[in-house]
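Last lecture ended with a question: if I hand you only a sequence, what can you say about the shape of the protein? Today we answer it with a concrete record. The protein is Cointegrate resolution protein T. Below, first the input exactly as provided, then the predicted structure, then a couple of comments.
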Amino acid sequence: MNGATRNEGLECLRNPGRITQQREHDALRLAAAEHQALQVRWTYDVHALEGVRTELAAARTELVEERQRREHAEADTLRATVRLSTLEQLLAQLRPAHSVGEPENAIAAGAMPAGR
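The predicted structure:
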């Protein structure tokens, strides 16, 4: 046992409250250091959370814009499909009824139909 340890032991016998106070003081210092570290971490986490919230808001905005673009594209596709169907029906009505192989073949060969 060295002199410092023996002196602490003697001090404990003479004044037991002093050792208890020192231990409490050391425990409070440790708790204060841990508290400060937690405050630093809390501040860092709050900033990180704000960054994540900002990213989430941007992603939501982008999602809404993409949804609107998709809806517009779907509407454009529907209109084009209806227009194509209408034009195909109109073209079918405007084509003259031909016998198989008559003027249609001549027109395909470059000749003009009679009477035109």
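Comments.
1. Residues 33 and 87 are 80 Å apart (CA to CA).
2. The mean pLDDT is 84.
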